[in-house]
Design goal:
2 copies of one chain form a homodimer. Chain A is α+β, with helices and mostly antiparallel strands. The first copy, chain A, is 18% helix and 41% strand. Chain A is built from 6 helices and 26 strands. In chain A, the strands form 4 sheets. The first copy, chain A, has a 9-stranded antiparallel beta sheet with strand order 6-2-3-4-18-17-16-10-14. In chain A, helix 3 packs across helix 4. Chains A and B meet through helix 2, strand 9, helix 5 and strand 22 of A and helix 2, strand 9, helix 5 and strand 22 of B.
Chain lengths: 373, 373
């Protein structure tokens, strides 16, 4: 293989490639990536990498001198290309699996691996599909992924559950057992069985979200029960889906909240930050003392001190107290974009809904915390 | 004590205070800092912190309601103040060593410590002194501190040696045994015994450098054999000096270099970065192959690959090869500011001088490396 690429394009692609590459050293072959020329395409090459779960294929413009393919260490190439200065990068494979990278006056010689040893990513025709605007897609991820579990304790919660509610309405749902986030998104272009439900892993959504602008205007999502593909522009991701059943969250979403308050979002965020700043616990519990027109926030009362703050709110119901992990409140407040937010609950023990005042498409539910101070 | 401060001023000062505060947990008292009102001063208070080696005293404008002093945990106060929003911060001590911090609607209660338990920083009249322009001072630090040792293996090299050469010329010198950096700075305002030589610790220079703009136009440096004070504007540092003798570096600085080459600095940096990018060693050895008009750079030849590059240089002597740790070359090239740099040496085994072409005030010497590839 012999190709010439623009350094900038190469460098950007390698950054994407590198973030998919497996960083663990248990499977050395996965520290590599593949460049291959495509039959019948004279002006572009295909870069691909995989960690078995998630694969990335990116098409990059290139001048092709000789068809072929190479498989080479991703980090080494990335570290070198990052330092290159000249405009064009010339990549050539020679006998005995050596790769030459020439750029300006510099010349690099790197060992490579038999392409056949690297797991190949095969794009499939899949039965279910959604075509979604890239900005909408970003929203659906941002407003749900934060509530998915981050550790391995419950694999079926390590992602976002996508299902179809009928009426062109997709449902994006995540939970870690203490809170949930739900986004309902109307999508015109879909072919989605209504009994279908898939769990998209966190890593896939994180990576896809990170480079979403490369998809262009729309992302085409296709899937079956095992795998999902995201494609658009010059880029395509393929991920395995999480096996297992997503819990039924409907009973947790309260339907009979009687207490409703409206709080200025930024004021609420700043107040939570102040009050939780003193806590040494990771989730920073905080007590909300609610009375007509007023929300008082109190940190734990501890030997190392305590903080209180008070916000004016729009509330006319009975006075009550309720505790939360302030991290959970801050997570959802930071993905909302409206001036005010609504909190709805029944009493100090009930799950609490947090949402925007005039937007039914998104809601989050947080379980309260028993606070004893 | 009861005082009112501007939040911004408080926040900035706490950042400085916090970077001096001892982060280790072995001496809990040193995790605190002190605020005290000053007799006869109605509009300012004094903040101070120390880790026994380095102390900081900063004067901050304040409205004083009641004279006094407090000693309180630096990190806790910093974490809280960082989140505050209102313009004024009201700090008040109450009975039983509780501190109240009120800002806008928020109120914090923190435990404090007897001020008497905290080591007090006493400013002294010291016999030796230098008054140096802040920009010049920054230069003297930047151009020497990089070559000082960073580990504890040789305490007398963990800083910059300051001495007086006569003729208003101060000498700033550092070495880690593999390289040295020397800055000669002419200073008009000094009172410095010519046989005097002090070693200023790395931490002091790093902190003083970081906040140098707070000194105003000039820094006043006073010292004896034990301690050094840096003052100017509203801020004062006091540091213990490193005990011990700084090695005599004069014999290491070559006087009889016969080979001299001129290299474009940025080109040299970029070339070193490319060639060293592949190395897995921390100091990234590189070989320079010098011939008339040409500098070739070669990485190690290793199983994981190799990189070479070539630069046009101004050189007319005999051809030779010499090895260096590329990190040492990059360190000195990055503190030089001229378009070109000069390398001077005698042969492939001799210490090499690196400096700017028309500036005798600074030089660095790097020991070569035996490269066997």
């Amino acid at each position: 293989m012999e190709i010439i690429l623009k350094r900038n394009a190469l460098s950007n692609t390698l950054q994407n490639i590198n973030s998919v590459v497996d960083k663990s050293t248990t499977k050395p072959i996965l520290s590599n990536f593949v460049i291959r020329t495509i039959d019948g395409k004279e002006k572009e090459v295909e870069f691909s990498s995989t960690d078995y779960e998630l694969s990335l294929v990116e098409i990059v413009p290139a001048e092709i001198k000789e068809q072929g393919s190479i498989c080479v260490n991703a980090k080494k190439v990335f570290d070198i290309v990052r330092e290159l200065q000249a405009e064009n990068v010339h990549i050539k494979s020679t006998e005995q699996l050596w790769i030459h990278i020439v750029c300006g006056t510099s010349e690099t010689r790197l060992p490579s691996v038999e392409v056949g040893l690297y797991p190949q990513t095969i794009l499939e025709e899949l039965p279910q599909s959604i075509t979604i605007n890239v900005d909408d897609f970003r929203h659906c991820i941002d407003k749900t992924l934060f509530a998915a579990i981050t550790n391995e304790s419950r694999r079926n919660l390590m992602g976002v559950c996508l299902s179809y509610n009928g009426d062109q309405k997709t449902r994006w749902l995540s939970t870690d057992g203490h809170r949930l986030a739900q986004m309902i998104k109307t999508i015109d272009a879909l072919s989605f069985d209504s009994d279908k439900e898939v769990i998209i892993p966190r890593k896939a959504l994180t990576e896809v979200r990170r480079v979403a602008e490369l998809f262009g205007e729309n992302v085409n999502i296709t899937f079956d029960d095992r795998v999902m593909q995201f494609s658009g522009g010059s880029i395509m991701f393929k991920t395995r889906l999480i096996e297992g059943k997503f819990p039924n969250c409907d009973p947790i979403i309260p339907k009979d909240s009687t207490l409703e308050m409206i709080v200025n979002r930024e004021r609420f965020i700043s107040s939570l930050r102040i009050v939780s700043s003193i806590s040494s616990e990771k989730l920073r519990p905080v007590k909300l003392i609610i009375s007509p027109g007023s929300l008082k926030l109190e940190s734990e009362k501890a030997d190392y001190g305590e903080v209180i703050d008070e916000i004016e709110i729009d509330y006319e119901g009975e006075s009550f107290e309720i505790g939360f992990n302030s991290k959970y409140l801050l997570d959802v407040l930071s993905v909302l974009e409206t001036k005010n937010v609504v909190l709805e609950c029944k009493n100090s023990m009930s799950p609490t809904i947090i949402k925007s005042p005039d937007d039914e498409s998104f809601l989050s539910v947080i379980m309260p915390l028993r606070v004893e101070w």
